[in-house]
Amino acid sequence: MNPPLLRFTDKGIYCEAADVYLDPWRPVSKAIISHGHADHSRWGHKNYITHHQNVPIVKHRLGTIAISGKEWGETFSVKGVKFSLHPAGHILGSSQIRVEHKGEVWVFTGDYKIEDDGLATPYESVKCHTFITECTFGLPAFLWRPQEEVKKDINEWWATNRANGQTSVLFGYSLGKAQRLLKLLDPSIGKIYTHGAVENMTQVLRQFADFHQTELVTKDTKKEDLKGSLVLAPPSAHGSTWIRKMTPFVTGTASGWMAFRGARRRRAVDKGFVLSDHCDWPGLLKAIKDTTAEKVICTHGYTEIFSRYLRELGYDARTEHTQYGEEEDKSPSPALPKGEGVKNDEVSL
Fold first, then answer.
1. Residue 146 has pLDDT above 90, yes or no
2. Would the pLDDT of 326 be above 80?
3. For residue 139, which phi and psi values (nearest 5 degrees)?
4. To the nearest whole number, what is the mean pLDDT of the chain?
């Protein structure tokens, strides 16, 4: 029996035939990187290969490294194994990694969403025999509303706060979520300010997208200037001395986890918006069906529940442990938040 095309090792997902790793979490000689979030693109590899949009992102985060960029669908071979990158729709520059060898095709998704957010290159379904999928939100409870509805809610929230003389502080991960929120904001309401981490990453990405004008919050920024404005900041800024400059302020956060009751209270924010850069339950199921894959490997999220449901549907589904899931929009563990139960009939349909 031939060894699997991709193996899960203590360093990462390994293609032995090519001696290449996909999104490895320990230093290796050659790594193909799906996207720029810290849990998927780590420091220490000798050579990095990724989509060309992701090159400046990874360089910004990791510094001077040996890295090369590829186009969507561009085939490149390593020791006779064919690789290509395909849009994952997760964030700018995010890719699925297609691996083909001796007639067998595997696809590793990294992180992905099938909804077109108008910013990242839209998700592309890739046919394969084995599909390696995340299932960050792999529960039937996760059903995303259309982005346009969430956009309306965010801008109405900001307008109300402005009318009340308050600064709106909206939290989102500095790579991906913050830029998506920036695209959704209505600048006619007021001025958009940014935390340094958000501003620096947004400047890196302006070459790929037309973002609204922003202004960095500095030590010279006055409270009077911020009043009625909206400030985009990473979640780590919440509760910091930096945020005191915003007083009086109202806080909001955008995350898929806001779909859970009590999530806003646990994060100590005034308003929660359900907006994720990952698939919801129907999105995961559609993505898997469209690949026509018979084998599915679930890597991070609600892996046990989701893989069990896939087996009930007839897939050869299993789980594998990885070190992905440290990005802020992912649960620190696949356990349900306290008090959030899921009925058996919700996962055994």
1. yes
2. no
3. -135, 145
4. 92
Please compute the mean of the pLDDT values over residues 49-64 and round it to a whole number: 97
* Domain residue ranges of the chain, discontinuous segments joined by +: 7-142+278-347, 147-273
DSSP assignment of 55-85 equals: HHHHHHHH-S--EEEE-BT--EEETTEEEEE
Report which of 169, 165, 211, 215 is spatially closest to residue 192, judged by C-alpha positions: 215
Residue that the structure tokens 């690789």 belong to: 83
Mean per-residue pLDDT, 128-157: 97
Domain covering 7-142+278-347: architecture? 4-Layer Sandwich (3.60)
Alpha-carbon 272 to chain mean position: 18
pLDDT of residue 239: 86
Query: Rounded distance, CA 178 to CA 170, Å?
Result: 9
What distance in Å separates the CA atoms of residue 110 and residue 132, rounded to the nearest whole number?
8
Decide: pTM greater than 0.85.
yes
Q: Which CATH architecture has domain 147-273?
A: 3-Layer(aba) Sandwich (3.40)
Are 311 and 297 contacting, i.e. CB atoms less than 8 angstroms apart?
no
